[in-house]
Amino acid sequence: MPEKKLHPLVEYELGWLGDDDPAQVMAATPQKLRELIEGVDDDSLRRRPAADSWSAIELLGHFADIELIHAERFRRILAEDKPRLVPFDPDAWNATLGHSKRSPVEHLALFEALRRSNLDVWRRASLADRAREYIHGERGAESYELLFKMCAGHDRLHMAQIQEALRPRASASL
Ligand code: NI
Fold first, then answer.
1. Which domain holds residue 145?
2. What confidence tens digit (pLDDT) does each residue in 97-151 have?
3. Residue 91 domain-assigned?
4. Is residue 174 a part of any domain in this protein?
5. Centre of ligand 1 from the C-alpha of residue 1, in Å
6. Gap between the Cα atoms of 126 and 5, Å rounded
7. Residue 93 belongs to a domain
8. pTM exceeds 0.90 for this model
9. Ligand 1 centroid to 126 CA: how many Å?
10. d(CA 152, CA 13)
11. How many Å lie between the centroid of ligand 1 and the Cα of residue 62?
């Protein structure tokens, strides 16, 4: 069956997931995030690798934001008839909610509670539920299953960014 051409962002995030089970990937993420930041000092957590790249702490805040957005989106897709998703501006949330000033414990507590709940909603959903659609402003109709898989790929791409943000750097003066 010919497949609909995927939007580049969708293709990119699904590429990070590959053929892996999205629920398994997403269930493992909280522990992986804790391991990534274990023993990391506060300066390193809050240092941006470049002026326009988020620090590890900002990325942890982003994990919580995205999980909150998905908590709402997943539920609306199940409860409403082809809901139109409300756009979300991650940079604006990061800047105005002060993610860089919070602790990793705060970000992780919110993320983990929402992740547990979002996984529970997914596991209880039937195949027909998972095929339910929403309308994305730019990309048109997509399924709950596609959005869920994108979320799993999104986990991996941002975990790689956290690793990158925490990579020791040569001093600028050398
Ligand atoms: Ni993101």
1. 8-166
2. 999 999 999 999 999 999 999 999 999 999 999 999 999 988 999 999 999 999 9
3. yes
4. no
5. 31
6. 26
7. yes
8. yes
9. 27
10. 8
11. 7
